[in-house]
Write a structure and sequence with these properties.
Elements (H helix, E strand, L loop, with lengths): L1 H17 L10 E5 L15 E8 L2 E8 L2 E8 L5 E5 L3 E10 L2 E10 L9 E8 L5 E10 L2 E11 L1
Antiparallel strand pairs: 1-2, 1-10, 2-3, 3-4, 5-6, 6-7, 7-8, 8-9, 9-10
Length: 157
């Protein structure tokens, strides 16, 4: 009888875990860079940067504007690597996945056939403040033996 009671409690507990709400934050919104709290390390800091993000389930659709240049990116948070940008010489391959409540972006630039480009890769870790009003991005950019760490802070509009 004691074993049966323990099994009932265990099944109830497991059921409550599967019914728990999704612990992943939602990054939807318009986010403006706070230049005073942003550090690009030795790289030049843009005058203006903004994300406009539509986040639904495992899909993120966004536009990133830095100064006068805008890029559109669609990603899925399933951890599969996909081409997210392409030009005549190279492609950007990106993998996006969750590590707890942190959204992890891994990307690399790869040359197209018959082209040579400087190999560059980066890992970005996105997190939201508890009140959901601040997007923090920590990024490490690597090229060969060199790397740069950046910390970017965006405020929700």
């Amino acid at each position: 009888m004691r074993l049966f009671g323990t099994l009932v409690l265990l099944v109830s507990f497991m059921g409550s875990l599967s019914a728990a709400p999704d612990s992943h934050p939602n990054f939807s919104g318009t986010w403006i860079m706070n230049a005073d709290k942003t550090d690009f390390g030795p790289l030049p800091k843009p005058d203006h940067a903004k994300y406009v993000i539509h986040h639904s389930g495992g899909s993120l659709v966004m536009e990133y504007t830095q100064d006068s240049s805008t890029h559109h990116v669609d990603v899925t948070t399933d951890g599969e690597e996909r081409v997210t940008e392409s030009d005549d010489e190279s492609e950007i391959w990106t993998r996006v996945s969750w590590s707890g409540s942190v959204l992890v972006w891994e990307a690399r630039r790869r040359a197209k056939p018959a082209h040579q480009v400087i190999p560059v890769g980066w890992v970005s870790r996105w997190s939201l403040s508890e009140d959901g009003k601040t997007l923090n991005i920590k990024r490490r950019i690597t090229s060969g033996e060199h790397s740069v760490d950046e910390v970017m802070v965006f405020e929700k509009q």
